[in-house]
Amino acid sequence: MTKIIQISDTHIVPEGALAYGQVDTAAALAETVATINRLLPQIGPVDLVIVTGDLTEHGTPEEYDRFKMLMADLDLPYRVLPGNHDRREPMRESFADAQWMPRTAPLDWQIDFEDFAVVGLDSLTESAAHGTLEPATLSFLTDALSGLGDKPAIVGFHHPPFAVGIRAMDAQNLHDADSMGTALSLHSGQVRLVCGHLHRSIAGLFSGSLCQVCPGTSHAVTLDQRANAGNSLTKEPGGMLLHEWRDDGFLTHLIPVGAFPGPYPFLGVS
Ligand SMILES: [Fe+2]
Ligand SMILES: [Fe+2]
């Protein structure tokens, strides 16, 4: 049974700094890695971890080095995608040793497992917060899906393709998402869309497929749907997602970051 874990929006900053002066994102990523490693005997085997963007806060080589140092303790292979806080060329350079990292063009990749394939798309718009899929990425998606036939696919990227009522974030979601919808509509197999950027667990339909937004590992975008709401963070618990293929369909589990008391047997319950 194929399983992958998705983490997102780790927002690593230089050592000694807090993201936005508030959040120790490195400690949260270390706790996320520890959570995954601790859970593996209960949920494994897991085939891959994907990181759906905003690995770093500023996209500097120093921040990518710190991200990789923290991820080095992970007992699973992982692949990354860029978010609006990342920078394409420093990120490409930082992962130059990875065989899956494209040497040129957008940071798109594909990996095939027994039950489904994972297609990673680069939605980064350099010097802008919103997302776009360049023509090369749309072609990559079309070619990847056509090559899969009716095999199911998880398609991952950073920017959500729909609005969620948080105005400041909706303005910077995936623009021209209809182009992606057109490419997805040509696929005969099941599709699960997974993204990040909102630092919240949100699910909705897009182009006939379920799109699941992943929580951040360290902090949330504030859930405030009022018209005059500012753009802010709230220190809600971090989380991640486990996507698996079970009984001929995708299933997604939300897993909080951290260690919690238990398990306790349900004594007396039959
Ligand atoms: Fe983010
Ligand atoms: Fe983002």
From TrEMBL:
<dbReference type="InterPro" id="IPR042283">
    <property type="entry name" value="GpdQ_catalytic"/>
</dbReference>
<dbReference type="GO" id="GO:0004114">
    <property type="term" value="F:3',5'-cyclic-nucleotide phosphodiesterase activity"/>
</dbReference>
<dbReference type="InterPro" id="IPR029052">
    <property type="entry name" value="Metallo-depent_PP-like"/>
</dbReference>
<comment type="similarity">
    <text>Belongs to the cyclic nucleotide phosphodiesterase class-III family.</text>
</comment>
<protein>
    <submittedName>
        <fullName>3',5'-cyclic adenosine monophosphate phosphodiesterase CpdA</fullName>
        <ecNumber>3.1.4.17</ecNumber>
    </submittedName>
</protein>
<dbReference type="InterPro" id="IPR042281">
    <property type="entry name" value="GpdQ_beta-strand"/>
</dbReference>
<keyword id="KW-0378">Hydrolase</keyword>
<keyword id="KW-0408">Iron</keyword>
<keyword id="KW-0479">Metal-binding</keyword>
<dbReference type="InterPro" id="IPR050884">
    <property type="entry name" value="CNP_phosphodiesterase-III"/>
</dbReference>
<dbReference type="InterPro" id="IPR004843">
    <property type="entry name" value="Calcineurin-like_PHP"/>
</dbReference>
<dbReference type="Pfam" id="PF00149">
    <property type="entry name" value="Metallophos"/>
</dbReference>
<feature type="domain" description="Calcineurin-like phosphoesterase">
    <location>
        <begin position="3"/>
        <end position="200"/>
    </location>
</feature>
<dbReference type="GO" id="GO:0046872">
    <property type="term" value="F:metal ion binding"/>
</dbReference>
<dbReference type="InterPro" id="IPR026575">
    <property type="entry name" value="GpdQ/CpdA-like"/>
</dbReference>
